[in-house]
Amino acid sequence: MKMYWSSRSPFVRKAMVVAHEVGLADRIEKIPVVVSSTMKPTPEVMRNNPLNKIPTLITDDGMVLFESVVVCEYFDSFNKGAKLFPTDPKLRWPALRWQALGSGMLEAEILWRSETRRPNPLQIAVDGFEEKVKTSLDLLEKEAAALSAAAYCIGHISIACALAYLDFRFTELDWRAGHPKLAAWFAEVSKRPSMQATAFIDV
Ligand SMILES: N[C@@H](CCC(=O)N[C@@H](CS)C(=O)NCC(=O)O)C(=O)O
Asked: For residue range 86-145, what is the model confidence (pLDDT) as tens digits?
């Protein structure tokens, strides 16, 4: 399998964490690319994914998959152990809800970052992204005990990548202040080999 990849992309990291968890990481040939929603699309990615987004995966049988959640579920289909996308409805909907929360936080974080890097940021929009991220952190603080109690799943991975991206790109935010339970959960989850093996690198 081949994956359009970047060591700076939190969505790619999410997919790679799943690949490590299910034992597929060695089977993925990473194709490093630079993509940005604010630059011209990258022709090599565009040839495979008209949305220009990574991760974009080319499977061994020639399928092209994109959207990190789709790539993650594809990887999980190879998983011989406990599924990261559970099928039991009692586990599945909380897992998908947490996956959506983590993914939505990441969308807000990326837009927030790209707006603040413009010469004249649109302050209203920036405030909105900040409010979404901070409100999500407050919600997750209330759910930290439930996160700890739940079987490890795609929801944990998505949220862990969203928090890790705050550490990577928003050091001044100090998100741990006011969120001690979430911080403790994140400290534990960050020790997993899959998280350690996929640390962000700014190249
Ligand atoms: N919803 C997508 C978001 C992926 C995404 O935005 N990736 C960024 C890199 S972190 C990207 O490819 N940006 C390029 C662009 O938007 O043109 C997913 O979950 O895969």
From this structure: 999 999 999 999 999 999 999 999 999 988 887 776 666 778 999 999 999 999 999 999
Is this structure's pTM higher than 0.85? Answer: yes
Take residue 68 and report the two structure tokens written for it. 């990190």
Q: Which single residue is written with the structure tokens 């993925």?
A: 28
Question: Is the link from the previous residue into 121 a cis peptide, with omega within 30 of 0?
Answer: no
Is the CB–ligand 1 distance for residue 56 below 6 Å? no
Q: Where are the chain's structural domains?
A: 2-76, 89-195
Cβ–ligand 1 distance for 198 under 6 Å, the answer: no
The H helix count followed by the E strand count for the chain is: 8, 4
Q: What dotted CATH number matches 2-76? A: 3.40.30.10
What top-level class would CATH report for the domain 89-195? Answer: mainly alpha
Whether the CB of 7 sits within 6 Å of ligand 1: no
